[in-house]
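Sharing a chain and its predicted structure for anyone who wants a worked example. Both blocks are below, sequence first, tokens second.
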Amino acid sequence: MSTPIVNLHDHERAAQAAMSDAAWAYFSGGAADEITLRRNVQAWQNLGLAPRVLQDLRGGHTRCQLLGQTWPMPLLVAPMATQRWAHADGESGMALAAAAQGCGMVLSHQTSTDLSEVARLVVAEKDRGPLWFQLYGLNDRGALLDLLGQVEAAGYEALVLTVDAPVQGVRDREHRHGTAWPEGIRTPHWPVATPSAGDNGLCAGLAAQAPTWAVVPWLIEHTRLPVLLKGITHPEDALQAMALGAAGVVVSNHGGRVLDTLPATAELLPAIADVVRPLGGAVLVDGGIRRGTDLFKALALGADAALIGRPALYGLAHGGARGAAHVLRLMRDEFEMTLALCGCPSPQAITRGHLQALPALPVM
């Protein structure tokens, strides 16, 4: 008799059993010694809750405001590359799962499914969450303009520019197993990166192609969509993003996949929220979210919403679209229970007063 899947940790175990060693290393691994990868999860657990009792919970809901629109849940699926390597349902299945649970989705620039195909499946769904597109800064502005036209025409509602990965991180787990994508997996919107001719700089010349702050105002000028910057870990960078016209930021250390020994996003979030929210910008966070209590804590620390990555991918890997939908359903249920048990009728009622420090436990 198989063990029932009742939480996101169960989904992770089922996914590992279903995936090849190479796929598991690619999707679950982090940079170097994976200190940041582990710390992302632990930091949410280190925060204690401070519930208030006997509160009036009538008319409660999970709705949130993002970029001037109201959505059913303050939760989005984070951008993740080549999801068809995890399961044949790929990004299409993930989008359907997110829409079915009232959650948003950010489609990766490195999607293995055409962006228009993904949008066609969900854009007309009445109770879905936001549909955004993540992109990296490209030197080929002509190709980028063409991509922006496709994104806008398909019905995506915002752009999420990733700014924290000018080059790939040191990924030991991937190097041990190899990460060549299986035959038939392609990335229709992603160009092959090549070093600049004659450039002997950092990372064989790839670093010379990295975008700078100049790409932000250019992007804002050439799209009608709001632009958020993903990968912000420093308050001064958050202020710079807002000064250049960004609609908001995503506090992210790339899931611990790029630069190891960065602090956890739960530790970085409050300082960034404190400078962005007074300027009217949206604040989102990803990294290590595994429970509905984690989502509650993210909102208490100043986020408007959070993104969930690997757990949704794990559900997809072993159960297709239905597996991903079950992950998001568990998050919805746990978040609603946490709201009620902490005395909050809605996400808007959550404050930092609902958190308290947990004393260190003695080592047994």
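Comments welcome. The chain is about 40% helix and 15% strand.
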